[in-house]
Design goal:
Helix 3 runs antiparallel to helix 4, helix 3 packs across helix 6 and helix 4 crosses helix 6. The radius of gyration is 27 Å and the shape is elongated. The protein is mainly alpha-helical. Bound molecules: zinc ion (ZN).
Length: 208
């Protein structure tokens, strides 16, 4: 396991040189930041070369973050956590504006976005959109009586917008595409009720 940086303490050599008194709690020399902010810092560079230094209260958590980020950087999947702070609503508007399709399809996308997606996700940061929330959202739409086909298409647009966020490097994974928990509901079977001969005759009458 990687060793995170201890923000609260300095080396014995440095402490002795400076003539400091050892900290009673950790029996090593305190830094100027002792007890200010979280003790443990995971320092690493992301795949774009930016310095990241999230801090943690427990050493074990900082070490895990360090190990994880190093593996991610090697795999090229590490994302600066700040990038995912963009609001979904802002991102979705950009995604819609970038669609090059016929106007009626844009209208459908825009309507699905406004009616079904933005009320739940618009004010959320991209990084906060997790599979669990998507699952709850779809269940909520189903409870309100929306057709499975409507939910499917709304989910498709949500997924497309989130995929752009992945491609833009804002989030590491598309939460609509991880695991099976966010699968869209199967389209319900519609029972076909044949028209009575009287009804057919009546309709034909109407066309005369
Ligand atoms: Zn201490």
């Amino acid at each position: 396991m990687a060793k995170p940086h201890d923000r609260w303490h300095i080396s014995d050599k440095l402490g002795a040189t400076r003539g400091l008194v050892k900290c009673g709690q950790h029996s090593t020399y305190p830094s100027a930041k002792h007890s200010v902010g979280r003790q443990w810092e995971a320092r690493f560079r992301d795949d774009a070369g930016r310095q990241c230094s999230p801090t943690f209260e427990r050493q074990v958590d900082a070490a895990a973050a360090l190990d994880g980020s190093r593996t991610d950087v090697r795999r090229g999947v590490h994302i600066d956590p700040k990038a995912g702070r963009k609001l979904f609503g802002v991102h979705a508007a950009e995604w819609l504006a970038g669609q090059v399709i016929d106007p009626s399809s844009i209208e459908l996308m825009e309507a699905r976005m406004r009616l079904y997606i933005l009320p739940t996700f618009g004010e959320l940061e991209l990084r906060a959109i997790q599979p669990g929330r998507i699952q709850t959202w779809m269940a909520g739409l189903a409870r309100r009586g929306f057709a499975a086909s409507t939910i499917r298409s709304a989910r498709t647009f949500l997924s497309q917008a989130l995929q752009l966020a992945v491609d833009d490097g804002l989030i590491p994974k598309n939460p609509c595409r991880v695991g099976k928990s966010t699968k869209a509901p199967a389209t319900e079977r519609t029972r076909v009720i044949p028209w009575t001969p009287e009804r057919v005759a009546g309709i034909l009458q109407g066309y005369k």
